Amino acid sequence: MTVGVLKIVLVIPGSRSLKDKRQVVKSIKDRVRNKFNVSVAEVGGQDLWQRCELGFAAVSSDKQLIESMLQQIINLIELSGSALISDSSIEFF
Question: 65-93 burial, b for 16+ CB within 10 Å, e for fewer?
């Protein structure tokens, strides 16, 4: 069994309030959850308007499958255009 964890730091340039940020973050979280069936949580930057840290977790017996899925999540967020990825990291346990 392999657990893959993806941590992403997002910059949301169009956000002028926490409400704006929440709308963008909720949209990203819902889209990723629906497409990939992974666990998602905001793990940092909760009080900042234009910055957010999201954590994603997936479990499988195939490490390559998880790695591919987490990379597809990064691609989906980049293509959404609603936020910019300033940093990302993938870990396996």
Answer: ebbebbeebeeebeeeebbeeeebebeee
DSSP state, residue 18: H
Q: How many Cα atoms occupy the beta-carbon half-sphere of 69 within 13 Å? A: 23
- Do 45 and 52 contact (CB within 8 A), yes or no? yes
In angstroms, rounded to a whole number, what is the distance separating the alpha carbons of residues 76 and 8?
A: 12
- DSSP secondary-structure letter at 52? E
The string of pLDDT tens digits covering residues 58-73 is: 999 999 999 999 999 9
Give 63-68 contacts, CB < 8 A, sequence gap 24+. 63/2, 63/4, 63/92, 66/2, 66/3, 66/4, 66/92, 67/4, 67/92
Contact call for residues 5 and 91 (beta carbons, < 8 A): yes
Q: pTM, whole model, 2 decimals?
A: 0.91
